[in-house]
Amino acid sequence: MTTLPDVVAEETDTGEDWRRLSPRMLVVHPLNELLRAAPALLAVLVVGATSGRGPWWSVAGAGALVLMGILRWFTTTYRVTPRQVQVRKGLVHRRVLTVPTDRVRTVDVDAQALHRILGLAKVSIGTGRSDKSDEGIKLDALSKDVAERLRGELLHRRPVAVQANENTAENVPAPDPEVVLASLRPGWIKYGPFTLSGFVTVGIVAAFVFRLISESNVDPDRFGPFRVVFHHLSSVSIARAISEAIVTLVVVVVVASTVGYVLAFWNYRLTRHSGGTLHVSRGAISTRSTTIEERRLRGVEISEPLLLRAVKGARILAITTGLRVGRGAERGGTLLLPPAPRAEVERVARDVLTDPAAVSVGLASHGPRARRRRYNRALGMSAILVGFVFVLWATNVVGLDVALVSLVLLPIGALLAADRYRNLGHAVSESPGGATLVGRHGSLVRRRVMLSRDGIIGWNVHQSFFQRRSGLATLVATTAAGHQHYEIVDVELAEALRVADQALPGLVTPFLVHPIA
């Protein structure tokens, strides 16, 4: 049987089973360091232009960054054994990171544009922890073939043989059977403009341009395009200028969101492998492949941002151990399905859950107390803002027209409260595959969380001052997966305890004064 080090035998050996990363990373890391530091180097160049030493400081900084990138190759070695994955790195501060192979939960293979050109890939090995203190194991960069075979060995638990002889068929690893659960359809691209990712892109570009202009002390009016725009806006009425700016912004955001959707999710495929794993691959210029053990999948979350919900779209996030969440879900490895039709989202959710009925189970409402609390919070905040604007009007800070326009916050608050209450709901779905806790909440982003009983490790019941006055509580299911806590918000205390007991019978009973009815 082939041992795990054979998987990486084609990389450069450094002796005693320790191996270096691919020599081609000598191109990747220096260039990446230069790209990340480009704004700072440009600022140094501009600021130092007055003394005539700006180019020299920029060249020195670029040389230092290139040297750091080269040193990463000389100071980084790794080895993979049947029991451990180890990475040794650092020059002054030497560290050895070790992960037992039986603790490997996820393997993420990422290939950015430069990686793909050079035939490389970055491998991130998840250990089942979602907290920020867990660095995990990252191998950047391995050759693409080695990365794929390493993932197959670590997650699919199948031995990988090295071809000693191209004519020996028995040395070639058998293909891993897979079932395609979902793949990108051209019609899904229409949901791209409703993800609002274009706002982020436009904001980053605008901030960079503004910072560049500010640092270089350049007058924008000196450039032709800016001069034409400024002249046009100054020659029309304020209402028309605002309208044209809004229309232009919407068009730019729509185009940027659509392009971003295509680049991020082109060639998207969700497959199930015979080894009990789900495999997600996507990307046009930069590709990303994430493999998740199904036995580590604790549930899914159906996320519906407001605009996406308006066109009957949604997306699916995995609730699993070993993948961090909370920073750009569309870019993260937890995304199982990109923005797609709601019916397709529900179908995929049923395919990956052990309890398919949880996707369509009816949810219990949270009652009049929760509704009243929603209206009190929304209208109270709106009234405070309106009152503040009228105080500004009374002190001649703003005009009467601004104060009157602020009154629109009251009906907007009422609509928001109604939508937030309508989206509240919870249930415990029982099936032969096991019980599933289902909770739904949110308005700007409505989330339906389906967390399996096996993933719940405890409960928290907390009440704020205002919740106690209303007889309500928030039931929090703690778990080692995903965000590590999932809430059922503003439910009556007795109902919260009943749901906790139904989902995990007997866990809360020893702490109750009276038995649950």
Topology:
Elements lengths: L18 E2 L4 H12 L1 H10 L6 H22 L1 E4 L3 E6 L5 E6 L5 E6 L1 H6 L1 E7 L10 E7 H12 L22 E6 L13 H20 L7 H12 L2 H28 L3 E5 L3 E6 L4 E7 L3 E9 H5 L2 E8 L14 E7 H11 L14 H28 L5 H6 L3 H14 L2 E5 L6 E6 L3 E8 L3 E7 L2 H6 L1 E8 L5 E8 H11 L14
Antiparallel strand pairs: 1-2, 2-3, 3-4, 5-6, 5-11, 6-7, 8-9, 9-10, 10-11, 12-13, 12-17, 13-14, 15-16, 16-17, 18-19, 19-20
Helix pairs in contact: 1-3, 2-3, 2-6, 6-8, 11-13
Describe it:
The protein has 517 residues and is α+β, with helices and mostly antiparallel strands. Among the domains are: 187-265, no CATH class; 360-366 and 424-517, PH-domain like; 369-418. 39% of the residues lie in helices and 25% in strands. It has 15 helices and 20 strands. A seven-stranded antiparallel β-sheet has the order 7-6-5-11-10-9-8. It has a six-stranded antiparallel β-sheet with strand order 14-13-12-17-16-15, with helices on both faces. A four-stranded antiparallel β-sheet has the order 1-2-3-4. A hairpin with a 5-residue loop joins strand 19 (472-479) and strand 20. Helix 1 packs across helix 3 and helix 11 runs antiparallel to helix 13. The longest helix is centred in the middle third of the chain and has 28 residues, at 238-265. The radius of gyration is 28 Å and the shape is globular.
